[in-house]
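Quick one, tokens below:
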């Protein structure tokens, strides 16, 4: 790709950390005894999940919502394990790439994420790279999490917030994301975009 850009905004899940939505769908299907994909997929989900990603409800209320939605009565830990099943690994090569890019580009993280997943991602990162690394946060100027912002992708407003707070030029800023709706939201505010799909990873991009 053309390297005529100053800043990169990265998505987290599916771009930096590997994820598999089917794992969480299967886990809740096992707990409930019926097909969970009618309530939750990568591209469409019930209001409960959107509300949690925007921080409109707390983790305890989200867990109670899961119990009601899936008609199950199980522990917080069992729910968290099913919810976190989609989170896989963080390849070391991707972190090495980010460390190198940070030497000459402005890097930001923008993720639709919730408190339970954020805690689990932090744990995976620390287990992989060591707590002394400083976590994913040490790789970016600023980390933007939807549940802390009260907003979520693909809303144009969340992209505008990042652009305005960081004084970014959208024409010289690239947004890298694996969900097509979010790519559309970024394009609507003038950001340059790269859609991670069909096995592509950030290692395949000419970002340096």
């Amino acid at each position: 790709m053309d390297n005529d850009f100053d800043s990169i905004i990265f998505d987290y899940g599916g771009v930096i950390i590997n994820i598999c939505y089917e794992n969480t769908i299967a886990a809740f299907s096992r707990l409930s005894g019926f097909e969970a994909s009618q309530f939750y997929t990568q591209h469409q989900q019930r209001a409960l999940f959107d509300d949690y990603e925007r921080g409109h409800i707390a983790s305890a209320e989200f867990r109670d919502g899961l119990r009601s939605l899936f008609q199950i009565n199980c522990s917080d830990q069992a729910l968290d394990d099913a919810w976190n099943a989609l989170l896989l690994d963080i390849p070391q090569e991707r972190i090495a790439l980010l460390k190198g890019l940070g030497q000459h580009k402005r890097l930001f993280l923008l993720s639709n994420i919730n408190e339970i997943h954020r805690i689990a991602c932090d744990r995976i990162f620390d287990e992989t790279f060591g707590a002394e690394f400083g976590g994913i946060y040490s790789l970016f100027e600023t980390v933007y999490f939807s549940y802390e912002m009260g907003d979520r992708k693909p809303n144009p407003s969340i992209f505008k917030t990042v652009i305005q707070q960081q004084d970014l030029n959208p024409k010289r800023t690239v947004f890298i994301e694996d969900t097509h709706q979010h790519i559309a939201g970024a394009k609507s505010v003038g950001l340059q975009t790269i859609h991670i799909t069909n096995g592509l990873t950030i290692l395949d991009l000419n970002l340096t």
